[in-house]
Amino acid sequence: MDVDPSVPIAGEPMAETAAWWLAARAEMDGLGAGAGLNIAHECVDRHAGDPLSANRVALRAVSRAGRRTDMTYAELAASTSRFANLLGELGVAPGDSLFTLLGRVPDLYVSVLGGLKALVVVSPLFAAFGPEPIRQRLELGDARVLVTTEALYRRRIEPIRHELSTLRHVLLSGPVRDLPRGTMRLDEALSGAAPTHTIAPTRPDHPSFIHFTSGTTGTPKGALHVHEAVVAHHATAVFSLDLRASDTYWCTADPGWVTGTSYGIVGPLSVGATVIVDDAGFDPVRWYGLIAEEKIDVWYTAPTALRMLMRAGPEVAAAHDLTSLRHVASVGEPLNAEVVRWGADALGVEIHDTWWQTETGSIMVHNPPDVAVVPGSMGVAIPGVEIGVVREGEGEHSQPSLSGPAEGQLAIRTPWPSMFRDYVGDHQRYESCFADGWYLSGDLVQRDESDRLWFVGRADDVIKSAGHLVGPFEVESVLIEHPAVAEAAVIGVPDPVAGERIKAFVVLNAGHARSDQLLMDLMALARRRLGPAVAPRQITVVDDLPHTRSGKVMRRLLKARETGEAEGDLSTLEPPSGGDRD
Ligand code: 6R9
């Protein structure tokens, strides 16, 4: 993070010259000649400075009890300026890092955007993390400032504060009963700071965010992003999520995950939309109620949530008026064709899958809003991005295949505006993600004759059985079609003859009991639909499956348990109870 932000670079070229990016870039007004591009300016000050949008609601926080608190773009501009000025008064310098450990409350958004105004590097952490994953991340990111609550501070930070050698300032959001030593109240500190702030020149490659993502082994990886990424967030918010300034928009992801920042904060605010801020957990009645009451136009969510809504039954959906929904999109894990078909009925709109990663920063593959969805496909490359498929067995330096049917690892030609620029503290690992100008995603895909991409699996989750490459998702999708099955996870277990043998774990819906007949039915369904090479050899009924906190089934953990291998980094494992949210 050793850049000198005081040196503006006049006319610095954008990383990508495609028309798509140029169109988005043209909508950014920038900080003036030679002063660069700052995310917070594009998301907040640009709208606050325009009489047409200054009084539009930027953030609408909806409490568990249904109470609304609105903040307009003008109010958000003032609060974030106060926050940026406060950081300056505390001696926090551009390039220092600021972490948040907060639920989804307005102070989270003010801290993130105020931090960006002050050119500090922001890392929002998920509030349900325990002390160990928090410590790892604060240490890896050299945290200088932390914004959290009194309760979270007492529980998660106080016990480890002495280990956090770079941490200088802790600001407490919300009510404080008994101010802990070495902390400050955020509200008091903000009220003493001036409500206007001139953003310093910001180079497009100035660091903006660190988003942590779990690897298969070792410590989490801190993907470093830059201000220029706002161009990609804006372009994809408009062209992939179909978002407009007049829309009310809800992204169900927490900003502790890249989706909750890129599309819970940056993308929608860059468009000037009204963002719903909801801190309550999943509840089908409440969720449908929120869509109906807030008249959500555009909704970005995850397959697990959609599958849970599907399980809640059609009558729950039918009891709410969901006609405000114009565009629904999904990300993060495979979106089963069955869920897309359910969505068309229950939500009244098609669910548009999108694919991207913490490292890519923004949507890379999408189902465009104006094209009929092909259920089960992740879609096509967004304009301005070139996706290649690296076929298995091709030499390390062969070029990826660019179109037509192919199967292999998804690769993206560098650069693009929102690409990560490093893994903090592990440049070697960063370098190892690239070959010959391509970023290698680690995901395996199939591409069809229309250049549509179909998810096969993570490179390390894919099963090789009797010479056939088998994607667990394919098998899981078939198993969950059975009315008794709520969820399925499929792994490869070592087999002396076939290399790997396919094993499935299934969780049953309420009202269904494990029986030999049911297992035979499932086996028959799988064989019928998938053929003997792909159907599981073994199906086991379990009470629940291990998930990451972002909702992905941890097949790797199932596999490790099955084979007796080390379980690896479990910091993102969701507790089986379904959540210990603060
Ligand atoms: C945004 C986000 C990235 C990994 C990615 C892939 C999986 C994402 C998907 C999908 C199937 C999709 N993934 N989108 N799998 N279909 N539409 O989720 O980032 O947390 O870094 O996860 O998620 O395996 O490589 P991140």
Q: What is the count of helical runs? A: 17
Number of domains: 2
Form type:
globular
Ends: how far apart?
32 Å
Q: Roughly what fraction of the amino acids lie in strands? A: 15-25%
- Can you name the CATH architecture of the largest domain? 3-Layer(aba) Sandwich
Largest sheet at a glance?
9 strands, mixed
* Helix percentage: 25-40%
Write the layout of secondary structure elements.
Blueprint: H1 19-27, H2 39-48, E1 57-62, E2 68-72, H3 73-89, E3 97-101, H4 106-117, E4 121-125, H5 131-140, E5 143-149, H6 150-157, E6 169-173, E7 184-185, H7 186-191, E8 207-213, E9 221-226, H8 229-239, E10 248-251, H9 258-271, E11 274-278, H10 284-294, E12 298-301, H11 303-312, H12 314-318, E13 327-330, H13 337-346, E14 351-355, E15 365-366, E16 380-381, E17 387-391, E18 406-413, E19 422-423, H14 427-431, E20 434-435, E21 438-447, E22 453-458, E23 463-465, E24 468-470, H15 472-479, E25 485-495, E26 499-508, H16 516-530, E27 538-541, H17 555-563
Parallel strand pairs: 1-11, 3-4, 3-5, 5-6, 6-7, 10-11, 10-12, 12-13, 13-14, 26-27
Antiparallel strand pairs: 1-2, 8-9, 9-19, 14-15, 15-16, 17-18, 18-21, 20-21, 21-22, 23-24, 25-26
Bound molecules: ligand 6R9.
Defining traits:
582 residues; alpha/beta; Rossmann fold; GMP Synthetase, Chain A, domain 3; 9-stranded mixed beta sheet; 5-stranded parallel beta sheet; 27 strands; disordered N terminus; binds ligand 6R9
